[in-house]
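The instructor's notes for this session suggest beginning with a concrete chain rather than abstract definitions. Hand out the sequence below and ask the class to guess, before any prediction is shown, which regions might be ordered.
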Amino acid sequence: MSRLNSSLRNQRRGFLWLLLLIVVAVVVYEWLHRQNQQQSPAEVYLTNLDVDSALQSVDSVQRVRREAAYRARFSTPSSRRERTRQPDYQSDWLPDSLLFEFDPNTADSATLIRLGLTPFQASNVLKYRSRGPFRHAEQFAHIYTLTEEQFARLRPFVKIVATSVPDSSRWSHPQYTVREKRDTLLDLNRADTASLQLIHGIGPYYASQIVLLRTRLGGFHDVDQLLLIPRFTPQMLESMRETFVVDTTLIKPIPVNRARASRLRRHPYVRTELAFAIEDLRHRRVHLDSIGQLRVLPDVDDALLERLRPYLSFE
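After discussion, reveal the predicted structure:
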């Protein structure tokens, strides 16, 4: 019985402490709330006003910085266009007494700079000259970044010597060598790019395209297949038809019963759908013995089978 009374007393004591803590918390909360409410509406307004003024000041500073950067960008010769129009030194700054006669076909960059051109303009003169000689003084006005004022001052001093202008029949671009072309009989399945460029009408582009098409096909079967090359016209084919021969024994056919669809689809005559359809036949344990069995596949006609016949093997 004494233990029961002791337990009840402890419970009452704990309840009283809990109640006391609740009362203290309520009193502290009310006191803090009243302290916050003691600030007058005027002080609240002034506080908000100070915050707004600070934000506006920050926006004003950022706006001023943006405007200054914009003016600095478009009002000073910092852009490429302004630098080309207003170079660091111009021919206008060079007295006429210091200008001298020069031949644009033989003058080097140092000579051009002495005439008042910028290094960039001098390099443009050399680039222009590399594509062909100056034949008259007015061509000098075509130099990139050369202003009309600069050309007007330099025009009386441009003297093109006849011996400095090479004969147009012998002029060639310095990056290429002139190769004498001759008619010769070539096998399309053996010729390399150097041999193909000996044919009249075939340059580096068409020579590389012919070799690339031969690799994709596995070998040429007919000269007319050259029309598969982009921009290779029928007129070009007729002009060089008698120049080419085709050795069909060099064709490398594709083993249909072993090749995967990724290998089949690389052939110019095999579409992606046809390649996967052939692979699907093999997955169904169908052994292909002849090209005629492909006629059951969709979008396969006799014309396509005739084109594919030299390039498929049914081992």
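Then share the key points. The chain has twelve helices and four strands. Residues 76-92, 168-182 have pLDDT under 50 and may be disordered.
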